[in-house]
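Quick question: what would this complex look like in 3D?
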Amino acid sequence: MPIPHLSTALRGPILDLENRIINAMPTIEHWLRTKWREHTVPFYCSVDLRNSGFKLAPVDTNLFPGGFNNLNPEFIPLCVQAMMSAIEKICPDAHSILLIPENHTRNTFYLQNIATLQSIMQHAGLNVRIGTLLPEVTIATQIDLPDGQTITLEPIIRKNNQLGVSNFEPCAVLLNNDLSTGVPEILQNLNQIVIPPLHAGWATRRKSNHFAAYDRVAQEFADLIGIDPWLINPRFTSCGEINFREKQGEDCVASAIDRILSIIKRKYQQYDVKEDPFVIVKADSGTYGMGIMTVKDGSDIYKLNRKQRNKMAVVKEGLLVSNVLVQEGVYTFESINEAVAEPVIYMIDRFVVGGFYRVHTGRGIDENLNAPGMYFVPLAFETTCLVPKSAAQPNSIPNRFYAYGVVARLALLAAALELEQDHSEMSAALPAQTQK
Amino acid sequence: MPIPHLSTALRGPILDLENRIINAMPTIEHWLRTKWREHTVPFYCSVDLRNSGFKLAPVDTNLFPGGFNNLNPEFIPLCVQAMMSAIEKICPDAHSILLIPENHTRNTFYLQNIATLQSIMQHAGLNVRIGTLLPEVTIATQIDLPDGQTITLEPIIRKNNQLGVSNFEPCAVLLNNDLSTGVPEILQNLNQIVIPPLHAGWATRRKSNHFAAYDRVAQEFADLIGIDPWLINPRFTSCGEINFREKQGEDCVASAIDRILSIIKRKYQQYDVKEDPFVIVKADSGTYGMGIMTVKDGSDIYKLNRKQRNKMAVVKEGLLVSNVLVQEGVYTFESINEAVAEPVIYMIDRFVVGGFYRVHTGRGIDENLNAPGMYFVPLAFETTCLVPKSAAQPNSIPNRFYAYGVVARLALLAAALELEQDHSEMSAALPAQTQK
């Protein structure tokens, strides 16, 4: 398969920010090592970044990454090696895991993601079988995929508060299902390791908690390498009690938009940025790029037409949006074949294992690209985030990708803090569960 | 740079042995994981393998690998990722390391190895400086290398029983010097982590101890996957009190040769192998492929001429050979452009990170290839040992390389056992050292 050329990515001179990150490499890697001794790293994670030339920031952190099939095949050995580290922590004494995917049977892109993930885990020495939550799958069902891979979906069996499939008793359950519709009964009160933990699912998770944790991480990192934390951190706030269809809670959103816009304006003046500030309004829980809009003035929120209101009102699986995140928009100045692009970075355990560009020909540089019509371009191997060339070319592409890998890992660390906090809150709120 | 094609490597049908290894992958990876919980994995290691078509075995295990420059550049991210794991164990709280190379200043191939190793460690987030044992280097000396890299050799400073260089106090010392001439005084009685440990150097290390440990590993592995251990293990014995120049100890060597030959003959009959058995006689300590010969009859040892005796009598830096290893020879049936080739597999921590072929146009399939005139062909990335294709092509090249990675890791495990044993023997024999 042809390796995509990097002439398509951002070509400008390396940012001062990127230079600072590259020059502080030993300090950064050491700091991250100490963090991973203090905090439990998520099993896997993908982070959407935006690089505006003056700013490089995460805008979304996915704890159930669904695009392993979009990684460059040349990255797969890195995935396998990182997976070996990840599974040592989870199943040191066993070698079987049950993978629970989203309830898709026809989305072959997603199923290729599951096949790739299964393959990575198998190559790390695990027996992996796929248990589906779909009630209509009552016997093992093989699905052939367009890329030549095959997966077998099997009905989940629950016995003694442990999940398995026929003749298979795994030591752990790996979720690639983001639990948008809540935690199904079959997953509740298990005496079995479940990763990511159930409270990482969208049934409970809030983006505002993630970005609050990211605020703390970004501040500490900015102090570490001596930069303005704004350069890596989009400002945000959140509003509750929203009902877009009924026009409830609009005032909170409108004033939040204006507050964030005025902060951005001051920062743009400080850094002599000529672009128009914008904010992104999106559901505080949920994924798949639904319920997202770009706004440049608080009053715009009162002028939404019925279709726009309906689009904002529901996310995946028809769930109503009641809380929204109002987040500073970050321009993406990257393009591939003249289409707007943003990098998505993949991590397993504490390692950056690859990434790809999300590309959209029909969207602008100030819009969400996670929308129908998007496509993916794998990052070529020479651009793996692990190997910047500090000596040779200060503005070479590998340098840029090292910076991307660092900012993605800051979001990973924020996710670790977020899950710790959620966990302690949930432990306090819920009755104690039976432990084995 | 062009990626070498694998059409040059062994092309025959996949061996029954290789098939068994690939099919047992989850069992093997799980077994290795349990081993690394019980034993301390060496920091880094390279293993020379020979693949005769009917047998796949390690013939040399190097604890101070000197060919990182020969790895395919596409493997480097794997090295960086593995290095991140390795250094977490050694310097969790620090980020500076002193690298001590061999005493070469003109061997640019070797210096490129040091530059590559330094680069890998820097990319894993370490500050690395190079301290040389050469007394003539009294100030920091920069050397430009043919591949565009640059290294700086600096005089070592010892203070408070810790080594460093000017304005640099590392938490640990990494040896890429095999201590063939003994342990220099400056390295003795340090209050500092030294890796590999001093007793891994050729001043004390014996190949016969390594292969005795490998015997135990190979037996357990063979039981695990149900194979004859001979298929992965060359038989050996050793002789002491040898002086080739003075014709001392020849009887021991001659009878050892005949004993090993007769064992091989029976095995060749059992497996219907038509080749002539041969043995390799080599120094029990030492490296650089010196003091090595191929023998097909015990009586040959009495017929050596003066030149041959002299070649066997000394190894690197003129050290006299007093102990020899008599080891079953393993044919290599791999060739690249009609030149005889053998794979060399590189590991950092417990991870296979790459490898290359050692190729020699002037040597036969039953001869040592580690000799002047050899050259190196990096393994292409699609052949990384981590990703066998169990489904698609049972005799594909990636499968063969997975088997290579497994057998190399068996030798790595043997090295771990060997160093544990040496360590306890040395602790018993030596006066207790001051510990910080």
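Answer marked as accepted. The first strand of chain A starts at residue 44 and ends at 51.
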